[in-house]
Design brief:
By secondary structure, this protein is an all-beta fold. 0% of the residues lie in helices and 52% in strands. It has no helices and five strands. A three-stranded antiparallel β-sheet has the order 3-4-5, with no helix packed on it. It has a two-stranded antiparallel sheet with strand order 1-2. A hairpin with a 4-residue loop joins strand 1 and strand 2. It is elongated.
Length: 71
């Protein structure tokens, strides 16, 4: 897995989902307190007629606040 200051790339989710037979798109937007912002976009469908299909997902997640230590 690859990570950086504001990005994380992982293969833990979404790999088992098969591409759709017809074009599908999904967008999720979330905003909250302490500068919380999250955007998730996914596209799925045929790339070349009935021969090749694909699926792509993008995620942006940012939180400008602080976390409280539970201990």
């Amino acid at each position: 897995w690859l990570s950086g200051r504001r990005i994380a790339l992982s293969r833990e989710t979404g790999l088992s989902a098969r591409p759709a037979d017809e074009l599908q798109a999904n967008v999720e937007l979330t905003v909250g307190s302490d500068d919380k912002a999250r955007t998730a976009v996914s596209l799925s469908g045929p790339l070349v007629s009935d021969w090749l299909s694909g699926r792509a997902s993008l995620l942006y997640d940012d939180f400008g606040g602080t976390y409280r230590d539970a201990s």
